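Re: the 316-residue chain
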Amino acid sequence: MRLCISSAEAKLVRWKRPPLVRSLDYVCKALTSRGVASIYKMRTVAAVVLGSVAGGCCFSPLGGGCGSACLPMRRDTVSMKQEPSSRPSLEDVIWGAALDWFKNSEMAAKRHQEHVNGDGVTHMMKGTPFVNAPDSLKLRFVNDGAGRHVSEFMRREQQELGQWKVEKIIEAAGPEFDRRIAMQELKELARSAPVVVLSFVDCPWCLAAKTLLLDELEVPPEAVRVVELEELGRDGKSLRAAVALATGRTSMPNVFVGGRSVGGYTDGFTKGERLGEPSLCLPDAPGLQPLYESGKLKGMLAKAEQKQQMLETHLF
């Protein structure tokens, strides 16, 4: 099985809308017509389905594929033809087509307009039954297969649609959004404690970040400032827009250590990534969990606390 295709083939796949993408479009429209799905719910479903498909399964619901007779492809046993790395892989084409569908879908446009008109921030888990799930279930979700697929979807969404998402979040903040003032307020907030966690109340990854810092690492509560964006109302939309401008990220959590963002919980900044406000970002930081697993996070936290103590001593 050839895993790489030419750029011409990639364009053809996108133009023809693959069966998988047409299937997702069909399912989303059907569910929406019954009033039981939002674009954010479907993003979660799509992430799990696409993660399985792109990861090696040839399942294609409603699209004329092999259906339930599919066999998972083991990459370690399949002989793969070596092709130039410049050609997109089949996996990349599938993800790209799905994200292109999402960006241009009527549901995304409708959900964005609701966000523009709303009085506060919204996110993919908002309005789902998962909101009321116990914390233990949310934490388990983050680390299981479904959670990893959603994380991969969000990572690719950030990679492919990052700038588009930033523009949408700024638009949602409203005409009263002042970039200069908002950026200055963000700088002050980021330096207000050794660790600042910008969070969504119902987000499993935000919960995982707070649990890692406060429970696993036992960072003193006074050293961790948690800001729940929903609780800020319209100001939360402005703060999210400022964070998007500074870091290029619109998802939460966004964790600042020593006044600089290290990214989210599972991922951060890629090498050479262009940052909106370099003074507020730690280049190449891979995210909170990878920093913890590498053993670097504890040292960073100690330096941040020491820096904060020196600042307070100087001021008072």
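The chain is about 55% helix and 5% strand.
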